[in-house]
Amino acid sequence: MRLRQFGYLARAAGSNLWTFRGRNLVSILIIGFSFLIIGIFLSLSNNLTYLGEQLSNNLAISFFLNHNIKSEEIDTLKQEVLSSGLNLEIKLVSSEEALQRFKNNFPELQDIISSLNTNPFPPALEVRFKEKALSIQTITAFMERIKKIPGVEDVQFNREWVEKMASLSRIVRAIGLFLGSILILASFFIISNVIRLNVFARKNEIEILRLVGATNNFIRLPFLIEGFVLGVLGSLLSLVILFLLMELFPLYVGNSLGAARQLFELRPLTSGQISWLIAGGIITGTLGSVTSISRFLKV
């Protein structure tokens, strides 16, 4: 008997979804767009977090040297670095190697470099730390000591970029959740109105069900199923579009960004994030339906 009741409820919900497919499609598109916005910002946030982790795993300092530095001075500088007592690796990057790195990493800027008569990149001494738990005070003290050695012109430490990436990741995620929340709220009211219209359209059928003794829950359930299905389809639609964007972005947009491409790359969502997006769609659709039938279905 219960299986027969469930079959009726499923058929009733399916009939409503198909009969009013136009406005139901609008609901699905609105939900899909809402969660797509959240998904895009989460994807960007994941990418920034990934870049920060890559920098953190390659904690390094670059000491830029004078163009005319002598080999003896470089040897003295290496000895000073090694005498610090820190667990580290040293690599000398010549001006020619620095230029080649730039050409490999930024091929779109090669014309600018070619127009110069000289190599603008100074030699550098790259110091990479093997320890991941070094305090910022220890590293800062080390940098300040090496900077005072003759021949060292400037210093660059990627710890600052790690912190900037982490901050930017949090900001991007917050913006995405804020914009997505506004759109989800709009989706909530749209679904509520769609279910209300469906209730009015089935007014005569509902009256007949009352006369034959149908319970309140039996009358309400098809509309709850409708909201549930709309939420699931909307969230799945957002994930499908997000996947297509990840595939198409590098082909049609990524190359035009040049050096900034890595910052705006869309990185896949985690399984937890996907689950939360689907759950969010289900909650939005179901709550929209619950609100509507509680206000407009007086049973």
Describe this structure in words.
This protein is an alpha+beta fold and 299 residues long. It folds into 2 domains: 2-54 and 163-296, no CATH class; 59-157, Alpha-Beta Plaits (2-Layer Sandwich). Helix content is 72%, strand content 8%. The chain has helices spanning 2-19, 21-57, 71-82, 95-105, 110-114, 136-147, 159-201, 203-211, 216-257, 271-296, and strands at 60-65, 88-93, 124-129, 152-157. The chain is elongated. The mean pLDDT is 77.
The number of helices is: 10
Structural class: alpha+beta
Major sheet: size, sense and barrel closure?
A: 4 strands, antiparallel
- Termini distance? 23 Å
SSE order, as H and E?
A: HHEHEHHEHEHHHH
Question: Helix content range of the residues, please?
Answer: over 70%
- Work out the number of β strands: 4
Strand percentage lies at 5-15%
As laid out across the biggest beta sheet, the strand order is 2-3-1-4
Q: Provide the residue-averaged pLDDT.
A: 77
The total domain count is: 2
Low-confidence stretches: none
Q: For the CA atoms, what is the radius of gyration?
A: 30 Å
Shape: elongated
